[in-house]
Design a protein that fits this description.
binds guanosine-5'-triphosphate, Spore Coat Polysaccharide Biosynthesis Protein SpsA, Chain A, 2 domains, disordered N terminus, alpha/beta, binds magnesium ion, two-stranded antiparallel ribbon, about 425 residues, 11 strands, seven-stranded mixed β-sheet
Length: about 425
């Protein structure tokens, strides 16, 4: 018969998966594992997943050996040299909760974000906590991250080096400058200005939040990717004291710095493309489009004037010796036609050329032009009669009549909204 209770107690769920990428961390890793064990709250089932890139100093196999020791039935506790430098011993009751340790071996050193992603996909916890192996991220801060994430599982809880109550110990001025510059670049270019340490490597997040993000595996700072790509997530920052690595050497080099710049650029582009179009953007684009059409319409109008003048002049003079009224009529007809064609193709970008509808448009365009001419004459008469100087009256009348032409053609001839 199915013994549900037994099965559940044997396969208790993991609450937290702690992912630790390692490369040449042999001097730190076992102390860190012990320290984590000692700092885990009693009611938390946890697994630690070491993701090692075939470290030449044997980090991966050191952890394998350690796992074998832990499997020894006599093993039940932890001893950890605390970050204060004093011996601090704690014994946990590992019978009533699960503590699991695993190593993911990768064949070559192939970047920090891919290592973390491998760790996440090998893990089973409901929540994920990510940290470095070099004791820069104090294990004493783990319970605070755990507590805050359980309190608000939809948030990201970030241990920050740059907020009130935080401090950094042991970093030379140059290293500090490098880190604060990287933070400034990220905050100013990626719209995450309200987060004090967006490039922290020490944070906790729910599995369902992180699994919904399409993370680009090229970068070095996974938190930055998540912050840019997860929309509207709450971020809770907690202060801590960052300590320069205890032992081992830094993996931060020029290629990491260049990768960082490249990934910020990619995230910037991502932000530009995925940013929801704001009302002000749409309005700005509408007004730009509107003004650009006005500009084109008046340019076409100016070419029409030149065409009208040239044709009227040439026909009435040299070649045909046409009566000037006939010559001007031909000039008007040709310039109205060229105006229509140019406005259709260029100003209003209308690509429909069926004969019937194009002829109807042409008729409407010509009628509106005639109406414009009549309006211009009427306005000119009114302005001059009301005492405005002829030159000024002509400018006002032309401006109003042509604006009227533009709006009527936009709406009725080319079927566009007035304001678009
Ligand atoms: N698996 C894996 N781990 C890496 C890789 N690069 C760095 N790490 C680990 O990632 C963590 C952060 O790397 P660090 O070298 O400490 O980089 P940092 O914290 O930016 O710089 P320092 O603290 O000055 O050394 C450490 O646990 C490293 O061992 C990598 O390519 N693969
Ligand atoms: Mg470090």
């Amino acid at each position: 018969m199915f013994q549900g209770g037994e099965l559940i107690s044997k396969f208790k769920e993991i609450d937290f998966s702690i992912i630790i990428p390692t490369y040449n961390e042999s001097e730190n890793i076992l102390n860190l594992i012990d320290a984590i064990k000692c700092n885990l709250p009693d009611n938390i089932n946890a697994e630690v997943i070491i993701v090692d890139d075939n470290s030449p100093d044997g980090t991966g196999s050191i952890v394998e050996d350690y796992i074998r020791t832990c499997e020894n039935p006599g093993y039940s506790g932890c001893s950890y040299l605390g970050s204060s430098g004093n011996e601090s011993t704690a014994t946990g009751d590992f019978e009533s909760r699960i503590f699991r340790l695993r190593v993911v071996h990768r064949k070559i050193k192939f970047g920090l974000i891919p290592a973390i992603l491998n760790g996440i996909s090998a893990s089973t916890g409901k929540y994920i906590l990510i940290m470095d192996a070099d004791f820069s991220h104090p294990p004493e801060t783990i319970p605070i991250l755990i507590r805050e994430l359980i309190r608000d599982p939809d948030s990201i809880v970030v241990a920050s080096r740059y907020m009130l109550g935080s401090s950094i110990k042991g970093w030379p001025y140059k290293r500090r400058l490098l880190s604060t510059s990287a933070v400034k670049i990220a905050k100013h270019s990626l719209r995450i200005g309200n987060i004090s340490d967006p490039i922290s490597g020490f944070f906790a997040i729910s599995r369902n939040v992180v699994e919904n993000v399409n993370i680009d595996s090229m970068g070095y700072k996974i938190l930055l990717e998540i912050l840019v790509k997860v929309k509207g997530v709450r971020v809770k920052e907690i202060p801590y004291t960052f300590v320069d690595r205890r032992s081992g050497t830094s993996k931060l080099d020029l290629s990491v710095a260049l990768d960082y710049i490249r990934s910020v650029w990619r995230l910037y582009r991502y932000g530009q493309q995925s940013r929801p179009k704001q009302k002000s953007d749409t309005e700005k684009r509408s007004s730009v489009r509107f003004l650009s059409k006005v500009g084109r319409f008046y340019t076409v109008g100016a070419t029409g004037l030149v065409i009208n003048f040239l044709i009227s002049y040439v026909l009435s003079n040299s070649i045909t010796n046409m009566w000037y009224i006939h010559a001007t009529t031909v000039g008007i007809a040709i310039s109205v036609t060229t105006n229509f064609v140019l406005n259709k193709i260029w100003t209003f970008e209308d690509k429909q050329f069926q004969l019937g509808s194009t002829l109807r448009q042409y008729g409407l365009f010509a009628s509106i032009s005639a109406l414009g001419a009549a309006l211009q004459l009427g306005l000119l008469y009114i302005f001059v009669q009301s005492g405005i100087q002829f030159g000024l009256s002509l400018i006002f009348a032309v401006a109003l009549a042509s604006a009227n032409n533009f709006l009527l053609n936009k709406k009725f001839t080319f079927h566009e909204k007035i304001w678009d």
